[in-house]
Protein: Aminotransferase class V-fold PLP-dependent enzyme
Amino acid sequence: MPHRERTLMGPGPGNPYPEVIEAFSRPVLGHLDPDFIALLDETNERLRQVWRTENRLTFPVSGTGSAGMEAAFVNVVRPGDPVVIGVNGVFGERMCDVAARCGADVIRVEAPWGQPIDPQRLLDAHPSPAIIAVVHAETSTGVRNDVAPLADRPDGTLLLVDCVTSLGGIPVTVDEWRVDIAYSGTQKCLGVPPGLSPLTFSDAAVDRIVERPSSWYLDLNMIARYVTGEGARAYHHTAPISMIYALHAGLGVLLDEGLDASWARHAACGMALHQGLEAMGMELFAADTHRLPELTTVWVPEDLPDGLDDATIRRTLLDTYGIEIGGGLGEFAGRVWRIGLMGHTARQRNVTLLLGALGEVLG
Ligand code: PLP
Structure:
């Protein structure tokens, strides 16, 4: 396989921070080695700072963002539980699929793709649901769904939030928003390759963990004994050692920069890209009040020169300029582009590079 450099401006992965790549060269230790345990504890502490939470059960699930999604539902859903889920893109749909497989009575609250979900509709959908679940940053559409108003839900209802594309890129404050369960993915705004899913559970969510979840691998009763260090560190599955080195390093970069500075950097790059695309006569897809800076959706121009279409343009960007951008999903395949500015990729130089390259390709 050729060794090519790419500027990863698709919906994820983004380019990892250089410090993260360096961390992969550390010697592999055993998962019970005291040095590794110290690094794992420090990683979990860094995650608490990034999630803005005091939650004890905060750690990276082995697996990508979808493993975090499954861990979130499979540990707390009991058959027949009413679970309200916001659906305005692919990942809200995926939540419905996962929750239904756990036996939930899924109550869908839909909004058109490209539009945010009104939080009041989620609150009004059922008088006392077991869970209200929503995707904070819908990567399929570039839309932010508001989470803060969901703090005012009935007592006893858990709030479960997908933060795969939001953590590190836009404000996420787990304790202030009274989020009970949240998961993310390393490959987006955390600037680390895919492979781990940071997860956090409030004490209320921990109290609701079922005795015997239908997944053995994602059973938090067992995993917690290893990751939290309360009692003996009991082996459950072999921790992905090098990925945890990488996440530890990525969180270090993020915390050194500061969360506020990282959010501001993503916001500035996103704004520059939005303005640059509009200045080229292109039309943005996501509702202007709820656009994500880290994931921009834009309509593929209709009046393209002969011989150019969605696929040829994306292929030329890749082959000639080394830039990856993403295509649309579902009914927007071929009609929308998804352009990521996540983690280390969220730099003004990449905005300028893409706008220049796109200008040359479109002529
Ligand atoms: N949720 C959201 C919002 C995502 O964007 C993604 C992936 O793009 C996922 C969940 C699933 O994560 P993964 O593909 O890492 O399993």
About this structure: The radius of gyration is 20 Å. The longest strand covers residues 57-62.
